[in-house]
Specification:
The protein is built from 10 helices and 16 strands. By secondary structure, it is α/β, with parallel strands linked by helices. The strands form 3 sheets. An 8-stranded mixed β-sheet has the order 8-11-12-7-13-14-15-16, with helices on one face. Helix 1 (11-20) packs across helix 9 and helix 5 (84-92) packs parallel to helix 6 (109-118).
Length: 310
């Protein structure tokens, strides 16, 4: 039987549950949130979204939640980044089947290293960067000529920590990044996000990836959301919000419609693949996402910023 425990039943946690509800196989689901009202809001969420799911156990006490974990349990930790490293260390002591973390994984590189060090049982830990499950990015990953590429990404005031980390990781994945240098950065003062007590930054940063790839990232209120990957023989211009991709090669220019699935469509695929094969390549491991997090944490350090990341 598929057995899943979810910690954090806020927006993203609910989307994980919504997707899990679509699994046709028999499963066991138990949930915990440090805020009781968030836990109790599941019933109204199910009703509002016509989610038919049985036997969701709501556990108010964390210790009781942890006591339910065994080596056949997938634990999804969809809390904020504050305290996630400590929480992950607690979960690791129960040796679950696997752990799925939201991102940023934690608040500092030191916390990140702590999770890696404390995983003495080698529990598979995945990080929820859903672009790995987008078909068109997988096609780019196979086709992209890596030599002398230039990458230009803009986003509209979405936050470098909250959303920029997605792009950092995307580029690291597509180009098999092994090293980077921050060559330029101009960052705003931190601003409070919609979630009270949590902060983000905007601005621009430029990287050199693998000593040969130019990567420029801009987050500002005046930007259009685009991802431009300009290779030696082929270029991709991706407009996720309009679900279009322009492919420019020496021979042709074509426009493709692209599918951007919701989180509520993806988690079930990940879960089924994990339990069927005991491991999965649908999402990256915590080891694979280390460099992208290092890019973010170094940028914060260069700007002498210590902020609560959501």
């Amino acid at each position: 039987m598929i057995k899943i425990g979810i910690i954090g039943t806020g927006n993203i946690g609910k989307r994980h549950i919504q997707s899990i509800a679509n699994i046709s196989e028999e499963f066991e689901l138990f949930c915990h949130d440090m805020y009781e009202d968030s836990l109790e809001s599941l019933d109204s969420f199910f009703l509002a979204n016509d989610i038919k799911i049985k036997n969701v156990e709501k556990i108010k006490n964390l210790d009781n939640f942890i006591s339910r974990i065994d080596n056949e349990t997938l634990v999804i930790i969809s809390t904020t980044a504050i305290g996630r490293a400590t929480l992950t260390d607690q979960i690791l002591k129960s040796s679950p089947k696997a752990i799925l973390l939201e991102k940023p994984v934690c608040q500092t590189l030191e916390e990140y290293d702590s999770i890696l060090k404390n995983n003495v049982s080698n529990v598979p830990i995945y990080v929820n960067f859903p672009r790995h499950m987008y078909e068109f990015y997988n096609e780019i990953s196979v086709q992209q000529d890596m030599n002398d590429s230039k990458i230009f990404v803009t986003q509209n005031d979405a936050g470098i920590a909250c959303n920029g980390i997605h792009i950092f990781e995307l580029i690291c994945w597509l180009f098999d990044a092994k090293e980077y240098i921050i060559t330029h950065h101009k960052i705003s003062n931190p601003y409070e996000t919609k979630r009270k007590g949590f902060y983000d930054i905007s601005g621009e940063v430029k990287f050199e990836i693998n000593k040969k790839i130019y990567f420029e990232f801009i987050d500002s209120a005046n930007s259009t959301e685009t991802i431009n990957i300009i290779g030696k023989n082929k270029s991709y211009h991706i407009f996720e919000t309009s679900k279009k991709m322009l492919i420019n090669s020496d021979q042709d220019i074509e426009v493709e419609n692209i599918n951007i699935p919701f989180q509520s469509q993806l988690t079930s695929e990940f879960v089924i693949d994990l339990f069927k094969n005991s491991s999965t390549n649908l999402l990256p491991s915590i080891n694979q996402t280390f460099l992208a997090h290092k890019m973010l944490f170094e940028l914060l350090k260069l700007n002498k910023l210590s902020i609560n990341l959501t």
